[in-house]
Predict the 3D structure of the following.
Amino acid sequence: MRALCILLFCSACLCAQGDPKTLETVGKIKGEAFDRSQVMDTLSYLSDVYGPRLTASPEFNEAAKWASDRLSSYGLVNVHLEPWGPFGRSWSVESYTVDMLSPRYSHLVASPLAWSAPTNGVVKGEVVMAVLPGREYDVKKLAAGIEAFETKWKGKLKGKIILVSAPKISPPRMNPNFHRLTDGELADIAKSPAPIKREKIDWDHFEFPEDPEAQSRFFMSLTSADIDEFIDRLYGLRNKLSKFLADEGVAAIIRTDPRDHDGMNHAEAAGSEKAANTLAPPTFVVDEEQYTRITRLLDKNIPVTISAELKVRTSSVDEMGNNIVAEIPGTTKPDEVVMVGAHFDSWNAGTGATDNGAGSAVMMEVVRILKALNLPMKRTVRIGLWSGEEEGIYGSAAYVKQHFGDPKTMQLKPEHAKLDAYLNLDNGSGQIRGVYLQGNDAARPIFQQILGPFADLGASTITLKNTGGTDHLSFDAVGLPGFQFIQDPLDYGTVTHHSNMDTYSHAIPEDLMQASAIIATAVYEIANQDEMFPRKPLTVVDTKDSKSTSTGSR
């Protein structure tokens, strides 16, 4: 019966590709998205006016209030901030400066990292090269590296300003910073992925793969529970290191990034956001050219002195994390829901324009378009703008657990049966080129129908492959149809991602208008289908004997 339903559903989708009424609606959506677009105005408010939106910060809360008011002005209902639990300290920058004082004065282009402790005045110190373990994902190697670092430097860092990034010795990157996907690259993306066997991981004895391709397969094979355990172990080790440096009396920490001449990247967290943990010493990322100048001076045994000052506002308790939620009620099936979403939070070095103000602005534009055209939709359309994504996909994961089910136990809630599909956007400001099916083969004809009218705008690639690192994973983890779109990379991975150059200037208006039209069409089509979206087999955990079984779902 299920196979027959899917066959009939797919046939209806294919027939609808040439339906004049459907194409007429797509034309209306394109007209609203292209001729009367508000997406860049929305993005400008999120990035230029409210700036970086670190979760639980005043800037996040002010931006969330503005976005809620904007959604209400579009005519959405049930607009609210939905708390999901204590997140961590509120942290916001008031001012900062970093200067090299000797052997020659130079103002350093720097950015403070989130959850750094304030300097409590100007601090000056001798610079010492004390390279920390790198961005290591092998828990065993990271633990060994931290232990070796602490043994080497214990009692030697009080009052010092330490450089913790290894000096850059590789030549500048020769590839262009800005890139659009070629036909050949899209063809490779469309290829079916190799099967990955999921096995329970014994983290205490796990050997992390050294080959990059094997590492990629490993990350793709992780379950939601595996990811939680993995993050907890990594964060635990990094928090231990932050406490060691604070206890040793380090005056300030300076890092640089591994990318070339394109801003200060990896401008993320200095340490833990949790109020129970010690704040990391004042930590700054400095651009590569100035950083390596300092390392060359040290190589010549020429003493270097740096001064720094950092003023921040931070709370002493964990503040509540909030998601932004709003709805367009459905007509005949209002209890069934199609969701769109993007993460609303960002890091603090830039203004969070491409990561992920762009995705948030597009999804706000999607619901604006649907309301402006007053398109009839059987199912309720709900938008979720998430917090805590940058620190571990916390906001969407908590929302899914609260409304739909627990991915660790697979104990599902009644709303699980009513969520039709979830669509996500979070890979910069590049135009949509297709969609990742997350292994859901039955979704292929549906997206073929949706993307058909947009083939001439470059959106036609459909792949069974998974993509990671963002909020659709929270839905996929409990067996719900959750999808992220394929996007042109532009300069997202090379320049703007987690960088001080993540600003409005790097957003492409035409790309965001195209994305808005495609997702609005997808929502309209999905919300009006007779059948709900097909789902992958659901893995159900039997908590009595810890066995897992797979079942069909609808």
